[in-house]
Amino acid sequence: QKVTVDVLDHLERLALVDFRDSEGVERLQKAIQFADQLHEVNTDGVEPMDSVLEDRCLYLREDDVTEGNCTKELLKNAREKVEEYFVAPPGNIPLPKLEERETYLQSS
Amino acid sequence: LKARRLCFQVSAALKEGHVTPTELCQRCLALIKSTKFLNAYITVAEETALKQAEESEKRYRTGQPLGVLDGIPIAVKDNFSTAGIETTCASEMLKGYIPPYSATVVQKLLDQGAVLLGKTNLDEFAMGSGSTDGVFGPVRNPWSYSRQYKEKLVPESHPEGEDSNWVITGGSSGGSAAAVSSFTCFAALGSDTGGSTRNPAAHCGVVGLKPTYGLISRHGLIPLVNSMDVPGILTRCVDDAAVVLGSLAGHDPKDSTTIQDNFKPFELPNLTDVSKLSIGIPKEYHAPGLSSEILALWSKAADLFKNAGANVIEVSLPHTHYSIVCYHVLCTAEVASNMARFDGLEYGHRSDMNKSTESMYAATRREGFNDVVRGRILSGNYFLLKQNYENYFVKAQKVRRLIANDFMKVFRSGVDILLTPTTLSDAIPYIEFIKEDNRTRSAQDDILTQAANMAGLPAISVPTALSERGLPVGLQFIGRSFQEKQLLTVAKWFENQVKFPMIELEEVKRHDHGVFQHHKSASFS
């Protein structure tokens, strides 16, 4: 079963990363094919494993402020900033629809 | 410099004043320059290294070195944050990024007086098994230029000439492996998510240790797969690995996935009696594609233990065949999540696109990530879609438990250590390697190493012998959780038995002023 253009478009929006070309789409197809081998394994009654350290308690430290006051340092790595703010382009504007976007998927 | 090989020996030389930290640092920096063609380093921190060497020298002069690592030149893979030193992960996304803090493991080494020479090259964001897919180009295996490899080369009909025969380092910590292998540093940090420390260690003829998950802090290691990543240690001998492990292991309040047990650094005993050891040989590791050469070496190693009185038995890890598939799903899923932080707002590359946050993020990521990274992000997102979550992600998590259980069963049956090959073959030429894409290569090359990451177990690759082509082959030992002392003790015994030959490099010979240690004693193959 090939992945539909709708799903590919959906993935580009979720990931905010593009397929770039037919190779990219092929790559995903192959990845899915590869992953499908998992279904050969019988996992009845098996619990999913999140972490190999599942039998231990995570360390929780005291809720004390131990570091901070490094605004200058942190802002050094940002390209766009104003005073102590990171500057972002306007939000609440959805990514253009497939037909209006510059994406390889348009042609497929 | 006879003492160039071991941390311990050079440490003694520093203490006795036979060599100073500054001399040592300068020699390493000069060697880095003359081995530039290896492309092992992305950033060489010459000024800060010399300063650190100076500080170390002061301490030695007043008879107060901080420890064995004081003044020892080291290198760090470029996916560890180093305060004030560019950290790129070999990606456009982080070119020019200067972290405001150092990874815990880096800080620990610096606190012990180690001299940080620079950041080593890798596959972009540690995704790959060749160290060929980073924006700074591929790393060349130093053994490509060794007498041992060159004399075995059949005059090829390559029109490109001599230079096309160079072989890969393996990956993704290829730069670190090459750096240690070519004597430009005494130890290097790598990372290991699916074998990224052990694979290049095997190909470059150095020791590559993957510690138990939770033993060493990941704070500052730019994450790939949070549930499997560990910092890896690359050295020229097992004793050195134990020393570095000793300075790095232990609980870190900044990494809540480090265990809280007290860790005591240890010195490795010189094991003489292996009769109480039970060595397991997992039959599934006789994987398709395993070269007959490596199969023979593996068999020889098993016999070595048997003849020395150890109990060597065949065991089964039945889900081995599925571990690479499982890894593929879990890895891409965690990658999809971890790479989401790169959006251009707070650090790293930022696109000029300014229409909206969404389009800026998309353009930034379009410009910053290579095909491999983008491919894994998209695959990961696919497996995490609501309609796929149960069938792929959760399914993979269940298979992960089965894989981990396989190991538990074997260790519970009395086996102490597992012995397996590390790689399917010796290092292949770069022009061969690039004929297949990254995902295919990774799937092939990780097959013997990544199950240990699935189960969180400690594993080490020890250089064993040279192949017919004159290239290093390593064998892998996998141990029980948090039993690094036992693992390294056995590895050290094995290392002493096989007496792996030293690499003979022109550049190194020149720097040595004629004092070059040859290992004439019987070697393993």
TrEMBL record, chain A:
Record flagged with keyword Transferase: yes
Matches recorded under Pfam families: GatC
Entries under SUPFAM superfamilies matching the protein: Glu-tRNAGln amidotransferase C subunit
GO molecular function, one term: transferase activity
GO cellular component, one term: glutamyl-tRNA(Gln) amidotransferase complex
InterPro entries documented for this protein: Asp/Glu-ADT_sf_sub_c, GatC
Source organism, top-level taxon: Eukaryota
GO annotation (BP), single: mitochondrial translation
Keywords per UniProt: Transferase
HAMAP family: GatC (MF_00122)
Protein known as: GATC amidotransferase
Annotated source species: Eolophus roseicapilla (Galah cockatoo)
Protein encoded by which gene: Gatc
From TrEMBL, chain B:
Keywords noted in UniProt: ATP-binding, Ligase, Mitochondrion, Nucleotide-binding, Protein biosynthesis, Transferase
Alphabetized GO MF terms: ATP binding; glutaminyl-tRNA synthase (glutamine-hydrolyzing) activity; transferase activity
Protein's GO biological process: glutaminyl-tRNAGln biosynthesis via transamidation; mitochondrial translation
One cellular-component annotation, GO: mitochondrion
Source superkingdom: Eukaryota
Residue span(s) of domain Amidase: 27-147, 168-488
Keyword Lipoprotein attributed: no
Coiled-coil spans in chain: none
Protein name per UniProt: GATA amidotransferase
Source organism: Eolophus roseicapilla
Lineage of producing organism: Eukaryota, Metazoa, Chordata, Craniata, Vertebrata
